[in-house]
Write a structure and sequence with these properties.
By secondary structure, the protein is α+β, with helices and mostly antiparallel strands. About 40% of the residues lie in helices and about 20% in strands. It is built from seven helices and four strands; from the N terminus they run βααβααβααβα. The chain is globular, with a radius of gyration of 14 Å. The two termini are about 20 Å apart. Bound molecules: adenosine-3',5'-cyclic-monophosphate. The site of adenosine-3',5'-cyclic-monophosphate has 9 residues, from helix 4. Adenosine-3',5'-cyclic-monophosphate (CMP) binds next to helix 4. InterPro entries: NDK-like_dom, NDK-like_dom_sf, Nucleoside_diP_kinase. Homotetramer.
Amino acid sequence: MATERTFSILKPDATKRNITGAVNAVIEKAALRIVGQRRIQMSRAQAETFYEIHKERPFFGELVTFMTSGPVVVQVLEGENAVARYREVMGATNPAQAAEGTIRKTFSESVGENTVHGSDSAENAKIEIAQFFEDGDIVG
Ligand code: CMP
């Protein structure tokens, strides 16, 4: 399996509770390398563009409001099979359905405030990374 990259967001519930280091420890323990990382305040426009695929969903407004409610940490993770690996490490979108030991099972309080985002495909990872990183900001 080739080394690949995925895009990650540590969401406002993680920065608010000061658990970004604890989440990063789980990421690194899973052999994913944090090769790009920035703490930012997402604008409404950025959040709306990022989650455009969900714009018809009933939770879209709530999602954009939450993602702009405080700082987030955007990351590029690198490793073997990184997209699938990170999805495994995050656990199910709804923490109530997430497996033991996953980030969402350990840290998340609800499906809306579920601590982390990870790309769902290598193709989307490239698109998402390009929304938040310049090539020079990623050092593998
Ligand atoms: P994420 O992986 O960032 O992609 C879309 C997000 O929408 C998802 O994580 C959840 O945080 C959020 N989401 C999905 N379903 C719901 C829901 N039923 N109510 C609120 N937010 C949701």
